[in-house]
């Protein structure tokens, strides 16, 4: 069962195809990341999925409905551009956001206090938003996103602007929601977050989906990398290494041959290479991203902002 | 439908609470004082200025006897008919100059010259001066010539409270006053609701709201929150007005009963104010939703305010033409309809017209809201913070009008 399904979504702004035939399948209960550089079409895609704007072409269903706003009570959304009423109290802000999604105001206030206590902001509940720090205000907005206990949470660049401590808190919160069976979908231009959190990802570049599947499937598109240190630099064992591979000192770096690891080990031992060190590493999501989306898209991915976790 | 109403209530409640507890509401309450004060001050100043403006002088170039008779005639007639009905007059010393030369001489400062004799007087001046004064000067010459024979006899007078012609005239004035009141209040509120929408966009909460509820309910919630605030204002102003009336007692002139009666007229005035506000407010809020900055709002609201002013003047023009085709058009045309109909309520007792007009105005307001929502969903929120759309060129309001850079 899919929480979100999209087929051939297209959005054109002033002749520019911001989103160009996007297909997505977000399984229920998963943590799903949408990766792509700034301007790739992530935000526009999310807005179409949520029904904020309508696609020019294509269809989408959200929690089984092709009219996303009718599922509003079951959805929480944190937009990329954060905004709150500056003169509203923190607890009222959370209650208001809950009320927008059908939660009675009083219940929203009670839950708001509870959530703020859990987030360590209990003393800020009755303070106006303008009296809070940026990080605290972002936390209040996040609490407002989940106060009505949605089945689906959509977060657009949730980590941007957060310091390392708050990023870690947010990662914990996302995992906690997923543990409760909530589907979480978030967009990011920082691959590390997706790598740590997501089971499934979609890679978007230039308005198109280049990949949609498990993180492991993305990584499996690349062969493992071998790091080998030998005592000798030549011998019959060299035939087991790729011909273009040259040593750096006594170190050899190469992609594991398609024949696999066993023939390589056998050649090294029988050829008396004198193996000092050998490691076989699976490629990271960043490498997979480069392989799937291309160097250009990878170059457009922002470097992590100061405070982003590595 | 229920969802839209529920969501509109959530939005409206938030806005209403925020406005009522803001300083802006205090200014809104005392707002009507300013036009009254400014109007009063301007009127008083205008009166003073009018008094000080030099009145036209007609020079008398006649023999001394005729001149003296003319001046005496002016004095008597001014007493009977009013000082300001006649130009100032002064005897000119004997001179070789003809009338044209006398008029050209700036030292004399004359508007016209009255020469010849009482038997055959000649008024010389510009066309407008001659047109203005020829009747009065003829009257004075006749009185100066015939003296006592033309003396005005006394007449007895008796006053009544009301006459049909007078009542019609006063009902017309009541209608006009209601029109002005409704218009002023509408413009004040429509501007406020637009600013409120722009504020919503500038503090970026609009996307949270747009993702949770239909935009229709955002527009409707905001419109009704402002309307509710206006009703609070009306209650306060009515209370203050009632207090003043009580204090003034019989010092105030009695107002003529409007054609539909006072209770119905007040009720209809409030409804037409609400409808005028909903029609104009839905237009303004639609603009506020498209515009990204206060500057953009100002750019667009000015021509629309001007157009609305024309509609208002159009409605005012038709006040004296009840049930003519032009007045019927003003009553049907949505932007002038509330103003035309409130004036009609003062002068015409037919009630079903009002039911039809109110339904029509309400439907039109809904139509504008739908268009505003459609434009919002079509043209606003084109990209995230890093979107290439922003970089692709100037944003277009309504997808048509190029606006400032994002």
Q: Give the termini distance of chain A in whole angstroms.
A: 34 Å
Tally of DSSP β-strands of chain B: 6
Biggest interface and its residues per chain? Answer: A-B, 42 and 35 residues
Helical coverage of chain B, percent range: 55-70%
String of helices and strands of chain A? EEEHEEHHHEHEHEEHEEHEH
Distance between the termini of chain B: 35 Å
Order of helices and strands of chain B: HHHEHEHEEHHHHHHHHHHEE
**DSSP strand count of chain A:** 12
| Helix count, DSSP H or I runs of 4 or more residues of chain B | 15
Radius of gyration of chain B from CA coordinates: 31 Å
Instruction: Determine the strand fraction of chain B and express it as a percent band.
Output: 5-15%
What structural category characterises the helix and strand content of chain B? mainly alpha
How many helices of chain A? 9
For the largest beta-sheet of chain B, the strand count, sense and barrel status come to: 4 strands, mixed
Q: How would you characterize the largest beta sheet of chain A?
A: 6 strands, mixed
Mean pLDDT of chain B: 81
* SSE class of chain A: alpha/beta
> Can you tell me the residue ranges of chain A where pLDDT is under 50 for at least 5 consecutive residues?
305-310
Low-confidence stretches of chain B: 386-393
So what's the overall shape of chain A? elongated
Average pLDDT, all residues of chain A = 89
């Amino acid at each position: 069962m899919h929480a979100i399904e999209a087929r051939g979504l297209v959005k054109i702004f002033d002749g520019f195809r911001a989103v160009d035939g996007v297909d997505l399948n977000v399984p229920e209960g998963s943590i799903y990341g949408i990766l792509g550089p700034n301007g790739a079409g992530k935000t526009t895609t999310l807005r179409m999925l949520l029904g904020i704007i309508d696609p020019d072409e294509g269809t989408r269903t959200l929690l089984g409905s092709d009219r996303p706003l009718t599922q509003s009570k079951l959805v929480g959304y944190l937009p990329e551009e954060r905004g709150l009423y500056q003169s509203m109290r923190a607890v009222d802000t959370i209650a208001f956001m809950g009320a927008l999604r059908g939660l009675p105001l009083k219940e929203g206030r009670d839950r708001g206090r509870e959530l703020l206590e859990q987030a360590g902001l209990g003393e800020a509940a009755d303070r106006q938003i303008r009296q809070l720090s940026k990080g605290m205000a972002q936390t209040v907005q996040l609490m407002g996103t989940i106060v009505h206990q949605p089945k689906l949470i959509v977060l657009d660049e949730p980590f941007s602007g957060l310091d390392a401590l708050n990023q870690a808190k947010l990662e914990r919160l996302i995992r906690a929601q997923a543990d409760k069976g909530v589907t979480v979908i978030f967009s990011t231009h920082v691959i590390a977050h997706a790598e740590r959190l997501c089971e499934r990802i979609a890679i978007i570049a230039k308005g198109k989906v280049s990949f949609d599947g498990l993180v492991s499937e993305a990584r499996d598109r690349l062969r493992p990398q071998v790091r080998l240190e030998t005592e000798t630099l030549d011998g019959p064992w060299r035939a087991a290494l790729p011909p273009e591979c040259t040593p750096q000192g006594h170190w050899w770096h190469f992609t594991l041959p398609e024949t696999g690891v066993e023939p390589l080990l056998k050649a090294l031992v029988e050829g008396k290479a004198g193996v000092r060190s050998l490691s076989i590493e699976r490629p990271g999501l960043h490498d997979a991203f480069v392989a799937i989306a291309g160097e250009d898209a990878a170059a457009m991915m922002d470097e992590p902002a100061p405070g982003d976790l590595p | 439908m229920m969802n839209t109403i529920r969501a509109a209530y959530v939005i409206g409640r938030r806005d209403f609470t925020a406005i009522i507890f803001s300083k802006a509401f205090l200014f809104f309450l005392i707002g009507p004082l300013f036009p009254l004060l400014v109007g009063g001050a301007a009127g008083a100043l205008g009166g003073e200025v009018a008094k000080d403006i030099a009145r036209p002088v007609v020079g008398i170039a006649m023999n001394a006897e005729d001149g003296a008779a003319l001046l005496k005639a002016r004095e008597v007639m001014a007493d009977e008919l009013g000082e300001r009905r006649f130009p100032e007059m002064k005897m000119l010393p004997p001179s070789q100059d003809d009338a044209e030369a006398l008029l050209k001489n700036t030292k004399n400062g004359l508007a016209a010259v009255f020469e010849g004799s009482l038997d055959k007087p000649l008024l010389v001046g510009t066309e407008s001066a001659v047109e203005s004064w020829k009747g009065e000067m003829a009257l004075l010459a006749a009185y100066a010539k015939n003296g006592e024979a033309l003396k005005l006899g006394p007449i007895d007078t008796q006053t009544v409270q009301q006459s049909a012609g007078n009542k019609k005239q006063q009902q017309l004035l009541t209608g006009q006053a209601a029109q002005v009141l409704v218009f002023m209040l509408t413009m004040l509120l429509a501007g406020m609701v637009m600013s409120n929408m722009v504020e919503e966009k500038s503090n970026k909460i609009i996307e949270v709201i747009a993702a949770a509820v239909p935009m229709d309910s955002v527009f409707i919630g905001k419109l009704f929150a402002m309307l509710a605030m206006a009703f609070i204002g009306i209650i306060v102003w009515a209370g203050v007005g009632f207090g003043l009336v009580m204090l003034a007692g019989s010092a105030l002139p009695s107002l003529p009963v409007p054609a539909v009666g006072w209770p119905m007229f007040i009720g209809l005035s409030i409804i037409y104010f609400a409808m005028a506000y909903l029609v104009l407010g839905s237009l303004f809020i639609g603009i506020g939703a498209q515009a990204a900055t206060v500057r953009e709002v100002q750019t667009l609201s000015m021509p629309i305010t001007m157009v609305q002013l024309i509609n208002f003047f159009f409605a005012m023009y038709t006040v004296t033409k009840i049930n003519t085709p032009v007045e019927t058009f003003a009553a049907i045309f949505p932007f002038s309809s509330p103003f035309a109909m409130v004036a009609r309520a003062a002068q015409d007792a037919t009630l079903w017209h009002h039911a039809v007009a109110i339904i029509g105005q309400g439907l039109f307001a809904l139509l504008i809201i739908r268009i505003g929502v459609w434009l919002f969903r079509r043209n606003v929120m084109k990209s995230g913070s890093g979107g290439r759309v922003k970089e692709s060129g100037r944003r277009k309001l309504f997808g048509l009008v190029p606006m400032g850079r994002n």
